[in-house]
Design a protein that fits this description.
Elements (H helix, E strand, L loop, with lengths): L2 H4 L11 H28 L1 H9 L8 H12 L22 H30 L5 H39 L14 H18 L2 H10 L5 H6 L1 H15 L5 H32 L1
Helix pairs in contact: 2-5, 5-6, 5-7, 6-7, 8-11, 10-11
C-alpha cells in the first residue's frame, strides 16, 4: 500500500505532493473536530438528561444493571447474592469551578464517544485513494468493526464495569469501627466513571490491535495460545477486584466477556496468518 504514491489530486490524475496530503488530512481532521464539537455542544445544552439520566444513573437503585443482575441471580438459583443495595449518594464539590469544568469534560467526552464512528469514517476516506481494490472491502469492514467494538466496550464499562466497581469502592471499609466514612466528591465520581468507561472502550479494541500487530509480525496466534492460561489468571484477578462480592457468579459476569474477547483476538490473529500464507 504505497500511500503517497497512490493518492490523486481532485484537479487531475497527477500524484499528490506531501503538502497536498497534509492539506487533505487537515480537512478530514477539521470535519471530525466539527462533528465532535457539535455533539459536545448538544450534550452541554441537554445537561439534565446527560447527568440525571446517564451519568447519575448508576447511583439510582432502579438502574437497569442492578435489576438485571438481581434477576439473573434469582434465575440461576443464587438468591440475593447478585443484588446490590445502592447507598444514597450526595456528591460534594470542593471548589466553585468544579461543576462547570466537569460539565465541559463530560460534554467533550460525549462528543468523542458518539462521534468516534464518524472520525474513523473520515480516516477511511483519507486512506481510501491509496488502497488497492481488493483492500477497500477489508478496510471499510475495519471501520465498522472498530466502531462497534468501541461502543460495545463503552456499554460494558457503563452498565457493568463501573456500577460494580463503584459500589464496591464506596462500600469498602478498612475497619468495622465506622470511624472512617466515605464522603464522595463530584470530581472523584466523574473521574472514575469517565476513566472506566473510556478504558473499557479501548480494551474492547483488542481484536483490532491484535490484527495490526499480527500483520506486522509482532504477534502470533501461537503466542497467544501459549499464554492463554496466564491471560485467564489475569482476567480472573481483574474480575475479582472490580466485582462487589466474592461470589463466583458475580465475577463470571465480568470475566466471561473479557475472556471471549481474548479468544476472538486469537481467531483474528490466526485468520491474518492464514491470509498472509496464502498470499505468499
Amino acid at each position: 500500500m504505497a500511500f503517497f504514491a497512490s493518492n490523486k489530486s481532485d484537479s487531475g490524475n497527477s500524484e499528490m505532493s506531501f503538502l497536498q496530503h497534509l492539506e487533505e488530512l487537515r480537512w478530514h481532521l477539521v470535519r471530525s473536530a466539527i462533528v465532535v464539537v457539535v455533539i459536545a455542544i448538544a450534550a452541554f445544552c441537554f445537561n439534565d438528561f446527560v447527568f440525571d439520566i446517564v451519568i447519575f444513573g448508576p447511583l439510582q437503585q432502579d438502574f437497569i444493571s442492578y435489576q438485571a443482575l438481581c434477576s439473573l441471580g434469582h434465575k440461576i438459583g443464587a438468591g440475593d447474592v447478585m443484588c446490590m443495595i445502592v447507598k444514597p449518594a450526595h456528591l460534594q464539590t470542593l471548589s466553585a469551578s468544579e461543576q462547570f469544568f466537569n460539565h465541559m469534560w463530560i460534554s467533550f467526552l460525549c462528543g468523542i464517544i458518539i462521534g468516534f464512528p464518524f472520525v474513523l469514517w473520515e480516516l477511511w476516506k483519507f486512506i481510501r485513494p491509496a488502497l488497492k481494490n481488493q483492500e477497500v472491502g477489508p478496510v471499510k469492514l475495519f471501520v465498522f468493526i472498530a466502531s462497534v467494538l468501541f461502543l460495545i466496550g463503552i456499554f460494558f464499562g457503563y452498565f457493568l464495569l463501573f456500577p460494580m466497581s463503584y459500589n464496591f469502592l464506596v462500600n469498602y471499609q478498612v475497619s468495622s469501627s465506622g470511624i472512617v466514612q466515605t464522603q464522595n466528591t463530584f470530581d472523584d465520581y466523574i473521574s472514575l466513571i469517565s476513566t472506566m468507561v473510556l478504558v473499557s472502550g479501548i480494551i474492547f479494541e483488542m481484536p483490532v490491535l491484535v490484527y495490526f500487530l499480527t500483520r506486522m509480525t509482532l504477534l502470533t496466534p501461537q503466542f497467544m495460545r501459549n499464554y492463554r492460561k496466564h491471560a485467564v489468571i489475569v482476567i480472573l484477578i481483574a474480575a475479582a477486584v472490580i466485582t462487589p462480592s466474592p461470589d463466583v457468579t458475580s465475577q463470571m459476569v465480568v470475566a466471561v466477556p473479557m475472556y471471549l474477547l481474548y479468544e476472538i483476538s486469537i481467531f483474528v490473529s490466526a485468520s491474518v496468518v492464514r491470509k498472509q500464507a496464502l498470499n505468499k
